[in-house]
Amino acid sequence: MINIRKFHRNFTFNLKLRYKLSLVYMAIIIIPIVVVGEYSYQKSEGFMIKEAESSLEKELNQVTEDINYKLDLSRKESDALFNNKQLRTALMTDFSEDIQGLNEAYIDVIDPTFYDLRLIQPSADIMIYTTNQSLLSGNRNIASIDEIADNPNYKKLLMNEIQFSWLPTSSMVKVNQNSDLGYYTFRDKVGGTDTQYEKILTFSRSINSYNGSLLGIADMYIPVKMLDDVFNNLKLSADSAGIYIDEKRQVITSFGHGSIADSSVSTVLSSNSRFGTIKDKDHILVYGKTPLNHGTILISYPKSYITDQIASIRNITRLTIALSIVLVAIASFLLANLITKRLDKLMDKIKHIRDTGNTDITFNTPGHDEVADIGKLLNTMISRINKLTDEQLEAEVAKKAMEMEILQAQINPHFLYNSLSSMKWAVNTPKYKDLNGVIDSLVRFYRLSLNKGNETIRVQDELQLIKEYVHVQKFTYDANYEVEWDIDEQAAECTCMKLILQPFVENAILHGLNPKKNDGLLRIAAYLEGGSIFFIIDDNGLGFDARTLNSSASSELKQLYKGFGIENSRKRIKLAYGDQYDVTVKSQPSAGTRVIIEIPAAAPDAFKKKLSS
């Protein structure tokens, strides 16, 4: 189950603004498109179904009227027979002894009457079953009433209870089929084949004398195929079904390939309406009644045929909806992107400030809306931040300068104290003769270290300062070791902070070379590599386990190498150049010590700028 609150929170707080706007625009536009599209399709489908119903009802009405018309022709033929006084007289006359009169009756009355009536419906036929036995040999349309005496369909007519009746459909054979004036007779009379078989609808009417006695019964034969011709004019689908039934539910004819449920037939027969429509989920059933014979025409029309016809409308509607959704999605994204594009630029600049720390950026956001106002506010804020940053940098530079002055002040008295003490004790010793040179070295050392108050010094001057320092130290400790110099001329022209090497040279002399006594060697090198100056101070003194410098155990050696001078020098280097520059100490017992100092290579002006930034 979807957590609505979680979904809302994710949508509200986590989704990017561009996508939020796109989704909102799409929802606002697409939902009405889908609703209107589906509503239009449903309306179109309903309209088409109603149109199909109306058309079907109209066609049924027309068919019903055509069938009624054909049935009415039979009724009119019967009326013509019933009202023909000459025919009635002939039916009442006994021609047993009057052959001439019989011939005249056939020639003048009976034959012309049948001929004229058959012209009304050429495919139909007429038969008179007469009680006058003297007429039987003259015409094939005259038959004895005895032929139908036992037929239950004629019972009420024979008993004079009714004057006319529509009989159930029967099987008859058409004699002389090649002529439009061929006649119908019962199948068993001529032994017709199945190919001659036809279904016939019969309208029977009694013909009475003036006093009401029965003279005969006239049958009007209507071939069912005449009715089929009418039904075939209907425009029905292949799955449609149609039947024409009489009042006893006997099928007169049927058409189509579908079927009609018995329940629907019962509903229609129980209805008093002449025309009507019954609809269910899958079919439309229309019906019409033919009052003359109490028949009913039923047509079942599948809705699927209608929906198939409007499938193109459905497909076009849905394709239109799909294209609309795509276009709306593209338009929504472009519109959202247009709105958020300036915000993205603002975010990129803010991220750049976050990642690089560079605040020399101006937000040029066009317009006068909220986004432009944010850009202006950011410009004001960055201006204030830059001002505060400059003030903080000035304070940091002042603080660094003060710290370096303090550190240097701590180093210089330490060296001066040791040097003056050694000179004092050398006054009354043979070393007195070297005292002038040592004093000169001490003076040059302090003159170079003072450097007119500047914190930076050329590398070559720093190396000269160290030479004077080593000279003083050798005198102070009466040491006997050699000193080698390996200086890159390009490195010598660069600039560094003053007294950067002195603490490390001091440790090499005091803790490495002096205790060794003999064969000592001190090597000092400077070279350029990859934009950095590397100072290397090598001695072949006693050495130590370099791991003690990083261990937590306390030892005298550790205290020496992490003592006052070394620690202060490392702090000075980091303060001046940054944490990426440091001092590396490598040493092994009895194998000497190597100190590597890395600083950036810079000309004097560049270093001053770096130190003040």
Question: Key terms for this structure?
Answer:
613 residues, alpha+beta, six-stranded mixed sheet, five-stranded antiparallel sheet, rod-shaped
What does this structure look like?
With 613 residues, this protein is of the alpha+beta class. The protein is 52% helix and 20% strand. It is built from 18 helices and 18 strands. The strands form 4 sheets. The protein has a 6-stranded mixed β-sheet. It has a 5-stranded antiparallel β-sheet with strand order 8-7-11-10-9, sandwiched between helices. Helix 11 packs parallel to helix 13 and helix 12 (435-450) runs antiparallel to helix 13 (459-477). The chain is rod-shaped, with a radius of gyration of 65 Å.
Give a brief outline of the structure.
With 613 residues, the chain is α+β, with helices and mostly antiparallel strands.
Q: What structural class do you assign from the helix and strand content?
A: alpha+beta
Largest sheet: 6 strands, mixed
Query: Helix fraction?
Result: 40-55%
Q: What kind of oligomer do you see?
A: single chain
What's the number of helices?
18
Beta strand count: 18
Describe the strand arrangement of the main beta sheet, using strand numbers. 2-1-6-5-3-4
Cα(first) to Cα(last) distance is 59 Å
Q: Report the portion of residues in β strands.
A: 15-25%
Radius of gyration, in Å, reads 65 Å
- Summed over residues and divided by their number, the pLDDT gives a mean of 79
Pick out the low-confidence regions.
Answer: 607-613
Bulk shape: rod-shaped
